[in-house]
Amino acid sequence: MPRKKPGLGEFREVQYGVRVTLSEDHLNGSGRLVGKVNEQTATLRNIVGDIQKNGRCLLNENMVFYAAQVLRDAYLDRLRRGYAVDVLGLGKIYHALDGTFRSESDTPSARPKLVPRFTPSKTLLAACKKLVCSVVRRSDTAPAVWSVRSLPDDGSGSVRTGTLVRICGRNLKLAGDGAGVFFLPTAGGDAVCVPPERMGDNFPRSLMFYLPSEVTPGAYALEVRTRWARNGRLRQELCAGRRIEITVV
User: Fold this and answer.
1) What is the pTM of this model?
2) In the predicted model, what is the mean pLDDT of residues 208-237?
3) pLDDT in tens, 140-151
4) Of 81, 127, 143, 166, which alpha carbon lies 20 to 30 A from 71's?
5) Minimal CA–CA distance to 130: which of 18, 15, 17, 19?
6) Rounded CA gap, 123 and 126, in Å?
């Protein structure tokens, strides 16, 4: 059926999309995915700049910024005096007790601390209802190799036998059973794993090791395998990055 056109005095709600990244729910082990909104912080200077750019204010940018700072300082002054403050109609900041009293005669050091809380206004809640998950992508936690070079680097792009090799990338840290840096001969044959005693740096963004003598000159595919995860825990499954074609000379 054709969509009904809005009549006079009616309007359609505009929806705004936010980016969401999905990752595995390791905490509950349910196999489900948890989502995280990719937060971007808009500073006061950014907001004022956008207002001026869109021509929505006749005041000078510096005047608007100064007025916003004065208003912020006035809010803080009220909060320091124990007031609840309405923030531009978006919600209320107020104080709450982080804990309970044991008795009315508690010493100041034993009394619960005061912490700030925020209650969104109806206007803010209505605006948030317009948000939708527009871009959803899976979190890429597999090892990613950006560069492989011998040290010192001669700029040839090849890896030299008997040298120190550095790999740069993302999520490279080696941990868990089966982890390692593997050289797979392109012409066929057994893969060569760099022994742990030859490893130097073992960081998320860089690995460094002495090239084993078993890696003879020729064409190889380099692969990084690990169970390491960003949260410091070990995965149950071994994760391998995309293979990188390299030449050993």
Assistant:
1) 0.51
2) 87
3) 677 889 999 998
4) 127
5) 15
6) 5
| Residue 43, Cβ density class (10 Å: 0-12 exposed, 13-18 middle, ≥19 buried) | exposed
Asked if 148 contacts 244 with a C-beta cutoff of 8 angstroms, the reply is yes
The token duo for 119 is 């209650």
Q: What H or E segment, with its residue span, contains residue 163?
A: none
**Listed residue (202, 178, 204) closest to 191, CA to CA:** 178
Distance (Å, rounded) from C-alpha 80 to C-alpha 84? 10
Identity of the residue numbered 74: A
Residue with tokens 């941990």: 175
Nearest to 193 by CA among 219, 224, 167: 224
- Are the C-beta atoms of residues 92 and 121 closer than 8 Å to each other? yes
Q: Point out the least confidently predicted range of 76-90, 125-139, 219-233.
A: 125-139
Residue 217 phi/psi, 5-degree rounding, is -55, 140
3-state secondary structure of 76: helix
Cβ atoms within 10 Å, residue 239: 18
Q: Which two tokens stand for residue 57?
A: 């204010």
Distance CA 166, CA 151 (A): 7
Residue 93 pLDDT greater than 90, yes or no: yes
CA neighbor of 132 nearest in space, from 39, 37, 22: 37
